[in-house]
Every structure is written in C-alpha cells, then in structure tokens.
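Q: Okay, next protein. This is Nephrin from Dipodomys ordii. I've checked the sequence twice, so it should be correct. Can you predict the 3D structure?
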Amino acid sequence: MRRSMGIVGSTVKTPIWALLMLMGLITTGLAQSPTPAAARRGFWELPKNLTAVEGTAVELRCGVTAPGSVIQWAKDGLLLGPDPRIPGFPRYHLEGDPTRGEFHLHVEACELSDDAEYECQVGRSELGPELVSPKVFLSVLVPPKTLQLTPDAGSTVTWVAGQEYVVTCVSGEAKPAPDITFFQSEQIISDVSSDVNEGSQEKLFTTEATARVTPQGSDNGQVFVCEGSNPALVAPIQASFTMNVLFPPGPPAIEWPGLDKGHVQAGQSLELPCVARGGNPLATIQWLKNDQPMPTAWGTEHTQAVARSILVMTVRPEDHGARLSCQVYNSVSPGTQEQSVTLQVTFPPSAITILGSASQLENKNVTLCCVTKSSRPRVLLRWWLGGRQLLPTEETVMDGLHGGHISMSNLTFLVRRDDNGLSLTCEAFSEAFSKETFKKTLTLNVKYPAQKLWIEGPSEGQHLKTGTRVRLVCLAIGGNPEPSLIWFKDLRMVTEARQAQGSPQRVQLGNLEKSGSTFSRELVFITGPWDNQAKFSCKAGQLSASTRLVVQFPPTNLTILANTSALRPGDAVNLTCVSISSNPPVNLSWDKEGERLEDVAAPPQSAPFKGSAASRSVFLRVSSQDHGHRVTCCAHSVELRETVSAFYRLNVLYPPEFLGEQVLVVTAVEQGEALLPVLVSANPVPEAFNWTFRGYRLSPAGGPRHRILAGGALQLWNVTRADGGLYQLHCQNSEGTAEALVRLEVHYAPTIRALQDPTEVNVGGSVDMVCSVDANPVLPEMFSWEKLGEEEEEDKSLDDMEKISKGSTGRLRIHHAKLDQAGTYQCIVDNGVVPPARGVIRLVVRFAPQVEHPTPLSKVAAAGDSTSSATLHCRARGVPNVIFTWAKNGVPLDLQDPRFTEHTYHQGSIHSSLLTIANVSAAQDYALFTCTATNPLGSDHTNIQLVSIGRPDPPLGLKVVSLTPHSVGLEWKPGFDGGLPQRFQIRYEALETPGFLYVDVLPPQATSFTLSGLQPSTRYRVWLLASNALGDSGLADKGIQLSITTPGGSQPPEQPELQAPPRPCSGPPGLPLLPVLFAVGGLLLLSNASCVGGFLWRRRLRRLAEGISEKTETGSEEDRVRNEYDSQGTGDRDTQSSTVSTMQIEPYYHPMRDLGPRLPPTLEETSYPRASAGVEDEGVVFSGHLYDDVGGAYHPPGTWGRLYDEVHVGPYNLHWPEDKYEDPRGIYDQVAGDVGTVESDSLPFELRGHLV
C-alpha cells in the first residue's frame, strides 16, 4: 500500500504521537529549503524511467522549488525519509545542493531488489500543500553468470558421423531471460527449441535450449558452441566442447612400381605400397595373398590423414598367378574396402640334371640324359665335350610346375683313354634369359688298369725288437681309377684301430699319394709280439706284393698261480710262475721282499706268437708278519737285456695285534682336546673298537664330549681332570679279539687349595707361610714367592728366607722375623699350564708397643679459664692391638670423670688415643700427662705437658738445601707454636755491610723458602724466627742461625715481581742520642699504661679462652677407624663417654687458617713441597678385608706417613727419625683455630707470656 504526505489531511484518524513526531521533524528544519517565501512552489526537474545493469550506480534526479517543505523519496510506496543518508539503506543517499532544490536519489551497486517504482514527494508547508512527482521505474538488468552445457563444456565428445545427437544448454538466472544460440563448426543450428523458466527469485528467469545435431566427417575436430546473450551483457557468454566425429576411410590405392602392372621376375624384391586416405580413426590396412592374410605393418600420418602399408616380398616361381589384395577399414566402417593385383612371374629353370654315369671303360659307349626344372618360358638344350659340341640323339618338352615347361635331351657317344678328365656340359638357353646361362657339367672318367706294384721297408728276416717303429711303403705306376693300394696282414686287411685317449697309436695307415703317374701308400706301426713271423701284403686290383718280419719280445704275460687263497698263520702255500711266451726264451727266479727263494722247474707249455714258454714253483709257510708281503717272480732275457716281474701279495688272516708303537700314555690340557690313538694290525680290518672308562662303555655313536674316529682312535674335547685315568680298548674282527689300556693324563692349571692367612710371628721368631695347591703336573720348581709393594726390579727381601717345596705344598720359611718383613706376600704356582695360580698371605710381625716421642708433640697449650677444652694426642705402634692408659702427674687418670673423654683408634699397627679435657683449669690441669701403651708383648709411654698459651718455640733444624750466586734455599722444622698460629721471618745480613734485612715467609706456615736477591761471592748470616700473636721465639737459640757464602757469578739476579722487599735495620753501634731519649720516654709511658690496663685482664682473657675452647671442641671430633688387625674386621676403639661416627675418618686436624694476610707467593716459594707428606690428602678409606693393609703398615725407615696410615720402623730401631717427621700443627693447630687474625698489640698484656 502506497503511503504519501497527503495522508496527513485525510479523514483517517492519526495517533497523537505520530502528529507530534511529524511536528518535530518539521521544526528541526531537516531538508528544509531556504527558498524565500515569495518563491513559487513546484518541480523544476522531474524523475525519469531508468534502466541499469546489476552492480552499476544510478541516479534518479529530482529538482524542487518548495521553500520550507520536507522532501523525500518513496520506493514502491515505502517512504525513505528526508535524511540525506537514508538510514536502513546503506547504498542509498541523496545528492545535490538542497539550497538549489536538488534532491537526487543515488543508488550505488544496483541489485535486483532495487528494481521498483520511485517517486519524489514534497511535504505540506505554510506556503502550500504537498507535491508528488509522477511515478518512474528503475529497471535493473541481471546478466546470466553461467551456461550449463550437456555434454559437458570443455570436454571432447565422440560422435559417429550420420547419427543424430541431442545437445542441451541451460543458462544461469538473469533478467530478462537470455537468448541461446548454437553453433556447429561455426554454423548456426536452426533446429533449436527453447523454454524460459522462472528463477529462484522474483523477476529472474532461466532459458533451456535443446538442439538436434547430425555430425559429418568434416565436423571432426571442430568446436560446438552454446552462446547466451541478454541486454545486461556487453558480450555474449559461451560454453563449448570439441567434436570427435568417427567416420570410415576412403578406398585403398595400390601404387604399382613401373608400367607393366603385375609382371615380375622370380627372385625380385617387390615393394608394393597401399594408401588409404581419410577416416577417424585412420584406416587399418591388411594385405592378403590369395585371400590369406600376410604379416605386414602399417603406419599413419595424422597431419595428412593418411594410412600407409608397404608389402615387401621376394617373388618366387610359385607366386605366378597369385592375387595380392589390400583391404582397409576402421571401427565405424560398414565393411572392408579392397583393391587387388594378379602376378605374372617369369622364372628360369631352378636346376639342370644329367642322368647316367660319366665313368666307363675305355672304348665303350656312354649314354646320358639332360633334364631341366620347370621354367617360364621354355629353354633349349645343347651338349659340349671339352670345346667340341655333340649332337643330341633326342629332345623332348613337357609341362612343368607354376605354368612353366620342362626340357629334356638324350646323348650317346664312344669314349677313349684320351677323353679321360674332359668336361661334359649340358647348356640351357632362352631369349627371355639372354643375360644368364644355365649349365650342368660332368667330368668324363675313362677307366684303365695300373702297370707295376712293389713294397719298400726292412729286409725280410731282419730281427726287430718289440716296440720298434717300422715303415712299409707300397708303390704302384699308372691306372685309372687310381689304384687303392690295400694293406693286408696275414690275409686280414689292416685298419687303424681306435686307441684309448692319451695312449700312443700303434698303427698309422697313410693316405694314397700321387706323384706324377706313381701312387704310394705307407703303413707305419710299432712292432709287438703278435707281429713275429707275420706276413704283410699290398694289393692294387689284380696286382700284389708281400714281406715277412721277425720280432724279438720279452714275456708277454707273467702269471703267478697259488694253490690256495685263504691263509692263516702257520699255513703253507705253493706258488707257480708261468711265462706265457717270449722270443728268445727267458730265465725265471723268485724273491720275497728282496730275499731270494729256492724254486723248482715246472713242466713246459705251448707258447703263442711263435715264441717260447717257461714256468717255476716255490713253497712257503706264512705268519701274521707276512700279511701284505709281496712274493716276486722275475723273467730275465739275456739277449734282450730286459727283465719282466710279477708279484703275489700274501693275504694272511689273523686277529688284531697292537703294534709296538702303540701309545699307552696320552697327555692333555684341561678344557682342551685329547686324542687316544690306536695302532693295531689285523686282517680283516677290526669290525669294532669299544672303549671303556671306569667300567662304563663309551657310545660308539659319540657323545657330547667324545667320538670314536674311523681308525678306532678316541677323541675327547673339553677335557676335565675327572677324565684322567685308564681307558680300555677292545678290538675285534672275524679272526679274534685284542685289548689294550691307554692312560690319559690331564694337566690342569694350579688352584690354591689352602693358604695360612694370616701368618703371625713375634719379632725374632720363626714361622712358615704355607701354600697348598691342586695341580697336575706337580713340578718341584713350580712354587715361587714375592713380596707385594717392592719396587726394586730384583726383589732381595726374600734372600734371607728359605723356600721349601714338597709335592703340592710350598712353604716360605722365615728365621728371626723382623719388622720390615711384615707385609703381603704372594705365592705364585706355575706348572706350565696357564694361568698360574696366585695367593696372598699376610705376614703379621707382632711386637711390643712403641710410643712416638717427637719433641714438638710433647706440649699442648690451652686457656685455663675453666671454659676451654684441650685434646692430648698419643700415638703408638704395636701388634697386636695396644691398650692406652693415662696418668696426670704420675696418678692414673679417672676416665669416669665427665671432664675427660678418650677416643681410641686402630689402623693396622698404628694406634691412637685422643684424650679430651673439658673446662681446662689452670690450677688443676696444667700438669704432666703420661700416656702408656700396652699389649701382651710389652708397654711404652710418653709424657705430654699441658701448658698455657704463649709464644712459639724456636724452629729446629735450619739447613741449606740449595745455593746459587743470587739465592739460597732453606728448610727447617717448626717448633711448638704456643697454641696459636705461628709464622716465620728470615733475618739476614751481609758480613761486609752494616744493617739487617728481614723477609716474611709466605705462605705463613711454610717450612721451606728461597731467599733471593743475594750478591755473588758474599758471606751472609741468616736467622729464622717464629712468631705468633703473643710474640716471637727470639734469637737466643743457636740452632736458628747459620752462615753461608754465595758462589761467584757473572749474571745479575732477576728480581721477581712479587718478592717481598727486605726491611733494613740499623746496627747497634753509634746510636744517636735523640732516639735513645725517645726510647726512655716510651718505656715510662708503657709502664703507666700497664697499670691502667690491668683491669682489662680478666675480660680479654675470658674472650680469648672462649674462642680457643670452641675451636678445640670442634676440632676434637674424629671419625671411627676400623682396625685391620682386629679378627672381626671392624674398627676397635674405646667408646668411653662418647659416640663416634662410622664414616670414613680423617685422623688429622685440618690446618688452622693463616693469621697473616694472603700475599702472592714469590717465584721461589711456589714449587717447594711441605715437609709433611700427604697433608693435602688426609682422607683414609680402609678396605673391608681383614688383613688388606697389614703389609702396607710398614714403610722404609725414616718415612712418616699419615697419622693413621702406614708407618714403618726399621728392625730394632725404636727411635723416631729426626730428619723427617709429621708437622705437629697437623694435629694441634685447630686448638685455637677460631681466634682469627689477632695482632700482638691487640692482646692484653697478661696473654703475652706464660700464665704458669
């Protein structure tokens, strides 16, 4: 229903809210025309009907003169509103200048929904009523988007020419409905029906067109097009497919080479092309000969649409009259198309034959017939003898094969001796074959006899030895045919017998040879006994010649005859030797294995080959040893100087007999192989070999570890010692049995069966270390001993020990045992079978306790303020384990007192006791403590003094270890450190130069130092001082100074960058007065200050003592150590008043941290080792074996090891070595380890000396 502004004045009741809204719109002035009130109202430009294509922009124009009125557009009666942006229609908006009355409706990208009626409306105002423009139409054209073609567009459609097909084309939706046109090979198809259908939306239409098509061959490869058009399209749209039209080919054409079609000659190679044009697909060509297919190939040329096939054949006479046809067709041909040609073949006779014999006796007639094979056309015949033509007696022509003719000519003539060897020719000729001549030739053979015959060779009656090569030649003169010259032996024709491959040919019969009119044939043969007195003849026709040979030969056959074949020990046998034939006669003799035998003559016999026979006999009695022996008969010819022999092998049946070479003992290695051989003699061969071991019969078929070989030998593998023993062999044959015993000795590597481990002995006692083994063989020198840990190439530690070997037991006997003989010994047993056995025996030498007495360890310092603790360390050596007891000032110490705690450790022969005193009191505990070590062999003790913290003792043993022109290397032993960390300082002076120089030793706890910067050839005096926080050791001890003189040198020393500079000090003489006065004043001030600082004594002492106590308690905890000597393999220690961890122990205390500042070491200080070996690696891990480290607990004399590690004392040397000992700070330097870096002037005066 169309709505307009005129509705406001109608009688329809309008809601009040609608009127109010309309009043509001009017009052807003939207789209109001500012035209003056005096202007005339009306349209000055009216809208027009428009047509637009979908997707294009269009503008409906409207020009209005209506001041104060609202202008808007209506679409199919729907008001679009006066807002120029037209809300709700994003593609619509108003364009133009409203002040000029331009209100054009602009539609962007037209759609089908824009196809409607439009009108421009002007609202009522004070100046006049509403105005409405005439209705205009906006027609939107929609082009078709697609064409759907059936068959599918873009494809190739195969049709058969002449058949009707239907093609359908459907357009896409469009407005207005599209027009569809079909093109076949660019020609419009008129037989088309079309239908217009409504689309999916209103105002849209589709067109469906159908065309009926009858393709022709010319349409093949052309395009079939469906074209759609409507007003919205600039150019029509198309859909197409390609037509593949099948149609038959054209008729074939045979292209005959030349003008005379069908005429060919036999033997000609005929190439005959056949061409067929057109057709889809191109034609298939087939050749036929007399309606029978011929195997041919054909090819196609698609660009020219031609199929071609060439028939290649060789013309033969039988092809005369043959019909050759070429047929063409394809898949749509209604039938085959054909063209043919008939052959006319010209051919000569394929052969000429002369019938009859050309061989005849002289002066006789010869009759011959010449016949040709079929030819087209016929041929003529003529005869020739040499160069002379002969006239035929008769000529005949007959029909032949393949339409040809046969010619025949007969000839008869008289032959003479002069005609022998002439050529007789029959010649055929014709005008059709003028370039060819056909002949058949025979050689005339006129026969006549030979004139003379004789033999050349050894003279008759000459003696020839057998094996002689004889050559006989038969010769003849003249004759035709050539004489055959045939050889005969004793009336039998001689031929070459077939010889075995590789054997020499005894008879060679030559060929007939001709030289001029002389003919010859030789006979070569090797003489044999059979040629003796033989007659050799040569024959040629009726002629004959002969000769006779005399041949000497040894016995042709020497035979030994026995009166029995089965012999047993003790039987007798009679042997006869017979020489069958020989020329001249021979002498016979007998021997057995080279021993001449007595024989007797036998009766003579007849002999072949016209020779002489002989025989002799011998009588023998046999034994088992004669089995296999040869009895030989020799036939000797004195004239021929030849001997022929034959032997008879004795076959003596006897039971098995073992030979003297039979092995009765076999040796094998365990896990190896063993072969028990069998050397037995028997005839016949033993039927069975049965082996028995320990009453059990071994399977003849073999087992997992044995097999019986073909000769009876027993083979064993993976031999074990249980396989050793006697093996019984039982041999049997048909004559009897025999038995033998073979012993198998199995050698195996030694195995330790028993070791006396450990072996214990007191010092000075005697003991045997026993090693028992299981071995085979047991050799007297298979035991050897060595001491483990010896580094010398030649172990001399066993020289004073006695080595005893008896059977499977070896002993190492020690007389007067020494401490250095304690350790681990290895028993090595080698009997030649790998691997040797090795066993370890620990020798423990028991001795009384030996307590160490090093001077630096005889003091322990602790603060006596009743809050600190101190630890006393007592170490001793001894086997077996020692028991420690403690006494204070000679009175046994009551360890039940909670202030005393003892920890005992055992490591091999090293034993330690740590006595910790808690709440040390200067009044009660500053005393002399005695440690006593006791075991069943004795006791020993040492004294340790518990003192107050004080200055260190002077160092000990200052010595020179190296000396150069510019430096000196020094070593020393630190003394007691006073309970505080100590450091060392070197003072030195050149004797010719006044003043002293000082050098601090870095690191502070080093016990070696290189003093550099010296002058060559100069005398120096060097002092060594020790100091701690309470002062230094002083210079009173002579042992801390020495004098040196540097050697001369030419090069100045290189000063190291980090060398601490010496501090010069003025000498004592010539002291100035002013410094003396200042020194006196300083002493007075110092005495006053001592009074003021007295009250600080207790507080400072307590603080220091607390720090020392804490560090002492911390450092006194030691881990549990297992005692190797203990029979249970676990650590043995006293657990009175404490519990200790069972972890790996570090019996040393870690060195106390340095009190002085860490300065970079000088070049000389970086490479000198500490005097105490092993301080850096103090962890001790003990083996779980009971006696693993007993031998390692004894080292060479003079070596200090770790505190709980191996320690060695030489025999009867009960004093600790003085040159090398354990750094005592490794035990006691942690007592005051927590004091920290304390300068001496920061301590109270009371701590700068001893308290007691």
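A: Here is a summary of the prediction. Residues 887 and 1217 are 27 Å apart (CA to CA). Helices lie at 16-28, 922-925, 1073-1092, 1097-1115, 1225-1228.
Q: Noted. On to the next one.
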